[in-house]
Amino acid sequence: MGQCPMFWLNSFKQAWRWLRRASGDDAYERYLAHWQERHAQQGGRPLSRKAFFRAELDRKWNGVRRCC
Question: Which residue ranges make up each domain of the chain?
Answer without folding.
Answer: 24-61
